[in-house]
């Protein structure tokens, strides 16, 4: 589990929802792959290191979390994170990432990232539509013709790396899901957040309330709080049809099993094909 949040963002997220992005991933992986041994590292930190005696090639998979990093900015943190992802590709260990994880893999493999041209995509990515390739790809198995997913991001993939496969997009963000192959490795990723629950969506909105107001998505922080409170309420009572109707959500988000589709599919592919099968491009 590669957590690319900065220490400051890690602290802010824990203050907001009680866990960092990496801790959320570890909790979800514990549900999807009970008994699996998971290690968490922080490639954004200057003192980040793998567990003693371990190499990236010794892992079955690498998962990349979301992050507030802007990959088009040249900083020590972005350099360390991109270098780590290049090492993952070179190791041949299959990887999965959400939100900034997709952006990190894109830049590491030669693509580009930019600020969202169509504005802030906040709370939920709406009407995500698989491409023809995406409809046949195991990453999106079980997803309907269009679906919504938790999402909050101000950056997007501008150009995918050479040879990458676009799997899904929507009106706001062209690249919502992709497969990237580079330097002997394979990465499956999404721009949205299948790993986070509605409580974390509400927390993200509150943390980024100023940005939502600045983007014109809310008149003031009180509007953000009113929306976040409804999302929180639906988290506590996911079968409340009135709240789901008010928020325009269906079971693709309110049902955890359906929301976790991409993570479950990636782990299932590892189990079914093994890393060699994924690297060979079997479908």
TrEMBL record:
Q: Which InterPro entries match?
A: ChyE-like, Class_I_gatase-like, GATASE
Q: Where is this region: Disordered?
A: 1-21
The terms describing its cellular component in GO are:
cytosol
Q: Which SUPFAM superfamilies match?
A: Class I glutamine amidotransferase-like
Q: Glutamine amidotransferase domain: from which residue to which, for each copy?
A: 55-198
- Biased region (Basic and acidic residues) positions are 7-17
Q: Pfam families, alphabetically? A: GATase (PF00117)
Which protein are we looking at?
Answer: Glutamine amidotransferase domain-containing protein
């Amino acid at each position: 589990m590669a957590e690319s949040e900065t220490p400051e963002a890690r602290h802010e997220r824990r203050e907001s929802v009680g866990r960092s992005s990496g801790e959320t991933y570890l909790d979800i992986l514990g549900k999807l792959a009970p008994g699996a041994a998971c290690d968490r590292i922080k490639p954004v930190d200057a003192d980040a290191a793998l567990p003693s005696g371990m190499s990236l090639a010794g892992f079955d998979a690498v998962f990349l979390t979301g992050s507030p990093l802007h990959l088009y900015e040249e900083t020590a943190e972005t350099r360390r994170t991109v270098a780590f992802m290049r090492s993952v590709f070179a190791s041949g260990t299959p990887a999965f990432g959400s939100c900034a994880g997709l952006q990190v893999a894109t830049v590491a493999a030669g693509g580009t990232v930019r600020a969202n041209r169509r504005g802030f995509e906040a709370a939920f990515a709406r009407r995500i539509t698989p491409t023809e390739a995406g409809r046949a790809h195991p990453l999106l198995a079980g997803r309907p013709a269009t679906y919504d997913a938790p999402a909050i991001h101000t950056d997007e993939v501008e150009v995918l790396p050479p040879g990458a496969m676009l799997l899904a997009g929507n009106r706001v963000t062209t690249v919502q899901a992709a497969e990237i192959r580079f330097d002997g490795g394979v990465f499956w990723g999404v721009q949205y957040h299948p790993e986070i629950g509605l409580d974390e969506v509400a927390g993200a909105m509150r943390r980024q309330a100023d940005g939502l107001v600045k983007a014109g998505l809310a008149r003031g922080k009180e509007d953000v709080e009113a929306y976040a409170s409804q999302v929180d309420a639906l988290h506590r009572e996911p079968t409340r049809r009135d709240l789901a109707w008010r928020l325009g959500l269906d079971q693709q988000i309110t049902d955890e099993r359906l929301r976790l589709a991409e993570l479950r599919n990636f782990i299932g592919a590892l189990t079914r094909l093994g890393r060699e099968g994924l690297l060979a491009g079997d479908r």
